[in-house]
Amino acid sequence: MRSLHGMGGMNDTVFVLVHGAWHHSGHWAATQRALAGLGAASVAVDLPGHGLDAPLPTGYLRPGQPGLASEKSALAAVTMDECAQAVIGVLRRVRHYRQVVLVAHSAGGGPASLAAEQAPELVDRLAYLSAFVPAGRPRFFDYLAAPENATALGQGLFLGDADAIGAVRINPLSPDPAYAEELRRAYYHDIREDAFDRWRISLTPDLPMAVPATPVVLSRERWGRIPRTYLRCADDRALTPAVQDLMIAETDAAFTDRPFTVRSLPGGHSPFAARPAELAAALIP
């Protein structure tokens, strides 16, 4: 565990945690307990269309899941700005802390980055956990389709036509063992085998299309002035280390005044599930 001596402790720091696609605030719980053990407060955000109140496709919980591959998503009209505003709302409520650290995982990097661009005065440090950084290329899709991500797993998980549905849809409740195994290998290959089903059934099926598809434009004067860390997942099979490195390099080239501090974590795309104590320790400066 990293020593907190000379840092004034972490009692004056709060971590604002932004989940990735199909996840929600509850998935940060073990990491929050670990942060609390290090003396740090934390608040987890539910982005629009995620969490226990997320609207589900009408057939999702019915036998046979009728229409799941084609039904228009109730989240189709959700915008990137609405997602950023959800983050900003939490940041405003915790601004009384001396230091506010905004942490984004995976697709949550888009909304978190836009929130920091729109309200840089609310963020003292940014931390990207195997997350999209729109500094080099403005859309998450631009990096997902990059040659450096060609070996990523999980491409067979997506249902129907995302443009027509208005969401990137998966089926966490699929009864197909092969489908469940692809989901496990892509996102949770290093958690306990007996825990996987509990994690997957807690996911929601729809990621609003705006999150990976909307360009996010960042400026040197606003987002660029915030110190930032990239937590690189060394055995990530959903967002490869090569494309993580590409985002880091392109960001540093575009924003030369304040390059990333880079730390590597062992394991896959979801360290909040596999090794939350190590993740919490890595978040501490």
Structural commentary:
It is a single chain. Helix 9 links the parallel strand 7 and strand 8. The chain is of the alpha/beta class and 285 residues long. The chain has helices at 29-37, 80-93, 109-118, 140-144, 162-165, 177-187, 196-201, 210-213, 241-254, 271-274, 276-283; strands at 13-18, 41-45, 99-105, 125-129, 167-169, 206-208, 228-233, 261-265. It has a domain at 13-65 and 78-153 and 215-283: Alpha/Beta hydrolase fold, catalytic domain (Rossmann fold, 3-Layer(aba) Sandwich). Helices cover 31% and strands 14% of the residues. The chain contains eleven helices and eight strands.
Which descriptors would you attach to this protein?
Rossmann fold, 31% helix, 8 strands, 285 residues, two-stranded antiparallel ribbon, alpha/beta, 14% strand
The CATH superfamily of one domain turns out to be Alpha/Beta hydrolase fold, catalytic domain
The first-level CATH class name of one domain: Alpha Beta
**Amount of beta strand:** 5-15%
Give the biggest sheet.
Answer: 6 strands, parallel
Question: How many E-type strands?
Answer: 8
Low-confidence regions: 1-8
**Cα radius of gyration in angstroms:** 18 Å
Shape label = globular
Topology-level CATH name of one domain: Rossmann fold
* Number of continuous helical runs: 11
N- to C-terminal separation? 12 Å
CATH architecture identity of one domain: 3-Layer(aba) Sandwich
Order of helices and strands: EHEHEHEHHEHHEHEHEHH
Mean of the pLDDT scores? 95
Helical residues, percent: 25-40%
SS-based structural class?
Answer: alpha/beta
User: Major sheet: order of its strands?
Assistant: 2-1-3-4-7-8
